[in-house]
């Protein structure tokens, strides 16, 4: 079951795939982290952001969660989109309203 709140209508095929993949990672916790971020920002990501996010979405859940917790991704993943993803959740932007 997807938790997405965003329709894929109006997105190109590449962004639709990213939206689907963000909500179907393997662990529910990372589905929520990646999915909420993607719902909120996929429509405004630049082509460079999309490329960086496609790479980030392929990282194994435990590794990605560790990077989020530490704030220190390895070289090659230390991108503006990673920092925006981390800030999105640390700032509370990624927390749904009750």
Shape: globular
Radius of gyration equals 12 Å
N-to-C CA distance: 20 Å
Q: How much helix, percentage-wise, in residues? A: 55-70%
Structural class: mainly alpha
Content of β-strand: under 5%
Order of helices and strands: HHHHH
Total helices: the number is 5
Q: Which quaternary structure do these chains form?
A: single chain
Main sheet? none
Low-confidence stretches: none
Mean pLDDT, as a whole number? 88
What is the tally of beta strands? 0
Question: What is the topology?
Answer:
Elements (H helix, E strand, L loop, with lengths): L12 H11 L4 H14 L5 H11 L3 H10 L9 H11 L8
Helix pairs in contact: 1-2, 1-3
InterPro entries: SDH (IPR005631), SDH_sf (IPR036714)
Keywords: Chaperone
Family: Belongs to the SdhE FAD assembly factor family.
Give a brief rundown of this model:
With 98 residues, the chain is an all-alpha fold. It has helices spanning 13-23, 28-41, 47-57, 61-70, 80-90. It has 5 helices and no strands.
What does this structure look like?
There is one protein chain. The protein has 98 residues and is mostly helical. The chain is 58% helix and 0% strand. It has 5 helices and no strands. It has helices spanning 13-23, 28-41, 47-57, 61-70, 80-90. The longest helix has 14 residues, at 28-41. It is globular and about 35 Å long. InterPro entries: SDH, SDH_sf. Belongs to the SdhE FAD assembly factor family. This is FAD assembly factor SdhE. Keywords: Chaperone.
């Amino acid at each position: 079951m997807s938790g997405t709140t965003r329709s894929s209508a109006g997105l190109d095929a590449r962004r639709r795939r990213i939206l689907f993949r963000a909500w179907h990672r393997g662990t529910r916790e990372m589905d929520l982290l990646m999915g909420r971020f993607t719902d909120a920002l996929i429509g405004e990501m630049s082509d460079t952001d999309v490329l960086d996010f496609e790479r980030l979405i392929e990282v194994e859940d435990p590794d990605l969660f560790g990077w989020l917790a530490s704030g220190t991704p390895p070289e090659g993943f230390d991108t503006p989109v990673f920092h925006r993803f981390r800030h999105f959740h640390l700032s509370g932007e990624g927390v749904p309203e009750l």
